[in-house]
Design goal:
Blueprint: H1 3-17, H2 22-31, H3 37-67, E1 91-94, E2 97-100, H4 104-116, E3 123-125, H5 130-146, H6 151-159, E4 175-178, H7 189-197, E5 203-205, H8 212-215, E6 223-226, H9 229-238, H10 242-255
Antiparallel strand pairs: 1-2, 3-4, 4-6, 5-6
Helix pairs in contact: 1-2, 2-3, 5-6
């Protein structure tokens, strides 16, 4: 190999080591057609990409954890925020449903108040273990897939209606599905009563129709989340979903308000 070609080869190898491009690796092969060189080059590149991906995931995880506030009532669990590993809850069976023990009395007070207004409220589901949540997610994927969409599209569609294990509010024990999972629940007397009075007992409609671009979950008129009376009333006043409200309080906290 003459000096000119050797200089070119060294420049290309340097580009490969720096991870500039895959095409540089291919060019290096032309200048170094020795057995094993390319496999070593691509092995190094793959390790670098995997490391970068892991670092990126770690950064996102840290950012998500930093957004959590020091208030169990406001724990944020959604498509990008996994339930914190250190989140403490006491799951009990009450009214035939599992839920966090701290929301039993608030729910009963809300149910009894609704009954006085001739509105019947009942819980169709509460706490779910991560294992059960994963099973539901997989069922949703299969349902879409069997209806003719690609598997990738089935996953995307499933994510808009059923969260992955650890990313569902039901894993916290603070979320309740009321009066059945019915698409037509919105606009019913029970739904109207809840929207007018649930905040008085610390509950908010978790996935409003006009916040779908933020929550990444379709409108669920039956899904209510306990956040405490003070926070529920403030969320309604500000017309914020939980993602917006947690961000709002976080910024106030940083500003020292």
């Amino acid at each position: 190999m003459d000096q000119k070609n050797r200089d070119k080869a060294l420049k290309i190898l340097a580009a490969v080591i720096a991870g500039v491009s895959v095409s540089a690796a291919v060019t290096a092969f032309l200048y170094f057609p020795h057995k094993g060189i390319m496999s070593n080059i691509f092995r190094t590149a793959s390790s670098s990409l995997a490391s970068n991906s892991a670092d990126s995931s770690a950064v996102k995880t840290v950012a998500a954890q930093e957004q959590q506030l020091h208030d169990w009532r406001l724990v944020l669990v959604n498509y990008s925020h996994k339930m914190p590993d250190n989140f403490q809850h006491v799951i009990v069976n009450e009214l035939g449903v599992e839920m966090d023990s701290r929301i039993i009395e608030p729910y009963k007070k809300m149910r009894d108040a609704a009954a006085k207004d001739n509105i019947t409220l009942w819980i169709s589901s509460g706490y779910r273990s991560p294992e059960k949540q994963q099973a539901l997610f997989e069922q949703e994927i299969n349902s879409y897939y069997q209806n003719g969409v690609t598997y990738a599209d089935a996953i995307t569609k499933a994510e808009s209606s059923v969260a992955k294990a650890g990313y569902s509010e039901h894993n916290t024990g603070l979320a309740l599905d009321l009066n059945g999972v019915r698409e037509d629940f919105g606009g019913t007397p029970a739904s109207n009563w809840l929207q007018a009075h649930s905040a008085e007992y610390g509950f908010v409609l978790r996935y409003p129709a006009d916040k779908q671009s933020i929550t990444k979950i379709k409108y669920e008129p039956w899904h209510y989340r306990y956040v405490g009376v003070q926070h529920a009333k403030e969320m309604n006043r500000l017309h914020m979903c939980l993602e917006e409200y947690v961000d709002y309080l976080g910024k106030k906290e940083k500003a020292g308000d």
